[in-house]
Design a protein that fits this description.
About 60% of the residues lie in helices and about 0% in strands. It has helices at about 10-15, 40-45, 50-85, 90-100, 100-115. The two termini are about 25 Å apart.
Length: about 130
């Protein structure tokens, strides 16, 4: 198999790993703490450089997603400030009325980041 071919099932296994080595089973473990089976451990150890790089890229995108979630409340405050400055009666409904269609899309995106529960790290999602 060429070194650049990425096998999605191996990347998925890497994405579900916390890489904690259990001495009693001589394996890594899943994110939920279950130790790998011997077959899973053998599969993970056959991962190519490209598959580890794909896992790392997906994990980096997930960490960026988490950072965006953490910053969402402040980003929403910064986004709303110019609208609130224009209002005598400062409430969200009045601010939304001042927004263009594109601004409303951004408002909805930021609000969604705040109200939606965070997603777990899963392969090929981020």
């Amino acid at each position: 198999m060429p070194e650049t071919e990425i096998r999605p099932h191996i990347v998925a296994l890497l994405c579900d790993s916390n890489f904690k080595y259990w001495r009693d089973t001589k394996t890594w473990s899943h994110v939920d703490g279950r130790p790998f089976t011997k077959e899973e451990q053998a599969t993970a150890l056959r991962a190519t450089r490209a598959e580890f790089e794909e896992f790392a890229a997906q994990h980096s995108r997930y960490m960026e997603y988490k950072r965006t979630l953490e910053e969402a409340p402040e980003a929403l405050d910064r986004f709303l400030a110019p609208f609130m400055d224009q209002l005598t009666t400062k409430n969200l409904g009045n601010a939304v009325e001042l927004m263009t269609k594109d601004e409303r899309v951004e408002f909805d995106r930021l609000l969604g980041l705040i109200v939606e529960p965070p997603r777990r790290f899963t392969p090929y999602t981020f």
